[in-house]
């Protein structure tokens, strides 16, 4: 951590007294911020076709695709990363094996990366609903799972962090029922009746996997990682059941951050959303491009146009080149391919899309934002490649940013501070290890630590746990176990 420039300087008693009395750092106009963090999302295609296969593949360090995924992560070395499509197992063994055998082993000259903290939780994919959800006359996986999947846990996700995850304040929304969202876009048949029967809707979760709010302690400032993986808005018919679910899965976070979530209950029964001054970063594959692909209209714009959100607009040099080389549907696309994050079939469609996002709260300073997509002449192109892909059909997306340490501006687009990212294709695809000289000085001297989840939700066991009572802490732990989260702390801690 950089020291505040004044902290080490000799000063007159009067000046020192002023510093001690005021929380404001030397740059009076600049609000205090955290150190710059690199935060990433990566749909790494670490799902497998059979239960247990990922564990088998990760048990030894010789799985080429897993090694490629690990090297991709090492090339960026994010402080916090969400990995989508990572099969869940209740003991968290895959989470540990990927750390031990892949992330913590250098690949092709890339430095190992150590994440002392991780979280993975149960998902709805591959959990057989018992109803014929797709209307094909049979009740079977993968189509009739509460989320599309061949076995329980397929297409799960994991969050790795170099900073502590505040485990007693995690909230998950795996079980929130779709029908309980006011104005839910529940699909209907051509005659106007519900596509799903009342018995199915009585148990139908909105989240196709889970939605998880993981508060992370960044040197005393809480940043809520909001992780999800809404269902693809495809593989349906005129009823648009997947398009509408995708829209509402995205809406869950849009409401959660904008003080519109009074209806929303988490898996521990706690109602409500984030305080409007909380720091957050929405991460994941949201299966929705702003202008192209199969989305229900406006799906991802619920987040991109929210006054609470900064669109970091990550860019790559290779996206436009690949769109041109691959042709097909890409030629008709409206979203600038500089923002594409997924390389999908182009003939006839959908073509390459922008669907993976890193979206912090308004007031966050964004220093740089990139899609890891090397050009074909770059040696690292071997990590992204062309179909059939050596690693994934998605690209790792990252942004380097500083969060406000005081309260973030709430719902004020004038001070929301979307920091435009100039598309500068000639810069390297990996973040610089140190903040650039013109970024704001570390303001740790003036920090006001935030407390999450205070006051607004009386039933919150996390808030009870914060009282320090061991009995109440155990209650919060029990609630967490009920939610089934696998908490995977490590004793070692390495920072960047
Ligand atoms: Ca069926
Ligand atoms: Ca393509
Ligand atoms: Ca595109």
Describe the structure.
The chain has eleven helices and twelve strands. A hairpin with a 2-residue loop joins strand 6 (212-218) and strand 7 (221-227). With 496 residues, the chain is of the alpha+beta class. The model is unreliable at 1-26, 411-428 and 433-496 (pLDDT under 50). It has helices at residues 13-21, 53-58, 64-76, 93-103, 198-201, 241-257, 301-304, 318-326, 381-384, 461-465, 470-483, and strands at residues 37-46, 80-86, 117-120, 157-161, 171-172, 212-218, 221-227, 279-285, 356-360, 365-371, 397-402, 486-487. It has a single domain, classed as Deoxyribonuclease I, Chain A (4-Layer Sandwich), CATH 3.60.10. The protein is globular, with a radius of gyration of 22 Å. One calcium ion is lined by residues 132, 134, 136, 138-140, 143-144.
Topology:
Elements: H1 13-21, E1 37-46, H2 53-58, H3 64-76, E2 80-86, H4 93-103, E3 117-120, E4 157-161, E5 171-172, H5 198-201, E6 212-218, E7 221-227, H6 241-257, E8 279-285, H7 301-304, H8 318-326, E9 356-360, E10 365-371, H9 381-384, E11 397-402, H10 461-465, H11 470-483, E12 486-487
Parallel strand pairs: 1-2, 7-8
Antiparallel strand pairs: 1-11, 2-4, 3-4, 3-12, 5-6, 6-7, 8-9, 10-11
The chain binds calcium ion (3 copies).
């Amino acid at each position: 951590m950089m020291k505040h420039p004044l902290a080490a300087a000799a000063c007159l008693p009067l000046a020192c007294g002023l510093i001690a009395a005021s929380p404001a750092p030397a740059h009076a106009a600049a609000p205090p911020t955290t150190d710059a963090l690199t935060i990433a999302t990566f749909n790494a295609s670490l799902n497998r076709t059979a239960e247990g296969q990922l564990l088998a593949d990760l048990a030894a360090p010789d799985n080429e695709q897993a090694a490629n995924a690990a090297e991709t992560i090492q090339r960026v070395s994010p402080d916090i990363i969400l990995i989508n499509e990572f099969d869940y197992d209740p003991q968290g063994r895959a989470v540990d094996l990927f750390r031990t055998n892949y992330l913590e082993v250098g690949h092709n000259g890339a430095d190992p990366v150590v994440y002392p903290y991780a979280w993975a939780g149960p998902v709805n994919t591959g959990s057989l609903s018992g109803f014929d959800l797709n209307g094909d006359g049979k009740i079977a996986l993968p189509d009739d799972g509460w989320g599309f999947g061949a076995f329980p846990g397929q297409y799960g996700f994991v969050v790795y962090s170099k900073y502590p995850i505040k485990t007693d304040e995690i909230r998950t929304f795996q079980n929130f029922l779709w029908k309980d969202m006011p104005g839910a876009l529940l699909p209907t048949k051509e005659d106007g009746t519900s596509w799903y029967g009342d018995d199915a809707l009585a148990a139908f979760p909105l989240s196709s996997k889970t939605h998880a709010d993981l508060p992370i302690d960044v040197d005393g400032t809480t940043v809520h990682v909001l992780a999800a993986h809404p269902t693809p808005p495809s593989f349906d018919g005129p009823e648009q059941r997947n398009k509408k679910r995708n829209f509402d899965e995205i809406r869950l976070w849009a409401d959660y951050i904008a003080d519109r979530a009074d209806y929303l209950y988490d898996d521990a029964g706690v109602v409500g959303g984030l305080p409007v001054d909380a720091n957050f970063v929405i991460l994941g594959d949201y299966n929705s491009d702003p202008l192209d692909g199969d989305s229900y209209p406006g799906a991802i714009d619920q987040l991109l146009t929210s006054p609470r959100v900064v669109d970091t607009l990550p860019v790559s040099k290779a996206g436009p080149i690949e769109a041109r080389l691959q042709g097909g549907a890409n030629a008709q696309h409206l979203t600038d391919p500089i923002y594409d994050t997924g390389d999908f079939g182009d003939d006839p469609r959908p073509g390459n899309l922008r669907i993976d996002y890193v979206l912090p709260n308004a007031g966050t300073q964004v220093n740089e934002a990139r899609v890891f997509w090397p050009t074909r002449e770059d040696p690292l192109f071997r990590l992204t490649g062309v179909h059939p892909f050596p690693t994934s059909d998605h690209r790792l997306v990252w942004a380097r940013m500083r969060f406000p340490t005081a309260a973030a501006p709430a719902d004020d687009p004038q001070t929301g501070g979307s920091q435009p990212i100039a598309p500068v294709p000639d810069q390297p695809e990996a973040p610089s290890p140190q903040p650039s000289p013109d970024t704001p000085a570390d303001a740790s001297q003036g920090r006001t630590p935030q407390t999450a989840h205070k006051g607004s939700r009386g039933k919150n066991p996390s808030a009870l746990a914060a009282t320090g009572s061991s009995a109440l802490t155990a209650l919060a732990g029990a609630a967490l176990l009920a939610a089934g989260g696998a908490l995977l702390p490590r004793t070692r801690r390495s920072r960047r």
